[in-house]
Amino acid sequence: MKKLNLIANFIVDVIQILNEDVSQSEQKSSKKAVENKSEINEETGEEDTRDLNVISDLLKQHEKLQKTSEEDLKIMNSFLDSLVNLSDDEA
Amino acid sequence: MKRDDKNKNILLKLLLEEARSLANFNYLVSYTLTTRDKQLDQQERWRKHILKATKEMILYYKLEQQATNNLIKLPSIVASNYEGLFLLNVNVTTNKCSGFIYTFTKYKNDKKEKKEIIVYIYKEGELIQTMVVKEGSKAYELVFEYRKVFEKQLAPMRERINRMQYKLLLEIMYLIKKYLRQ
User: Fold this and answer.
1) Residue A73 lies in a domain
2) Are B138 and A90 inside 8 Å of each other by CB?
């Protein structure tokens, strides 16, 4: 079924996201963190840089998780819409 | 080197925004007439736990009142054998759920007679449609296939993701507390 394939694809995507090595995505740092990092780096010391790296990493992980949350809602809505459409077709 | 106030405020603002966003959780919940109250208690306990963990962020955004009033609601119907499957989205100030409740319309003694379910579809807490679905139809098959995927794959995966999200939230809160102390 089309909708169940969609769910299966989502599960595969999520597993990939969860298993992805964070270090592989180091270069694609979060825009938000980079902007703040450049703004702050001028006048901050080593501790700030360390914290910023931690924050940047946390933001990246958050972005990944956020995508899965959006997908969850998409899958549920897609399922509900399919159900409503099937009910109309079979009526 | 001592961090100046400007930099500290920029960092704090960023961290607080992140904490607010990370305090937005999705849960995939299933329940029956007999387990609904237990499910509600569990979700409420978890919500209060998140509020406690993010106290500094809630105070910063002055959300105490809204957070206190944000009681979780899960739809129910008058039937003894229903089952509800919902995606519940809970953030600090609001909660909403989308999903469905189904119940068998009547018990069939005759195995040859087709079963029938009535499905109540909810979006963002509102009942949007009620439909009767007969065994053998595509809709009937879809309901039970989805139920299987929901329980075996989607819900356990969501739990795993939520644990990771909670861990990130605690790390962000740790940094917030650190900068607030300085």
Assistant:
1) yes
2) yes
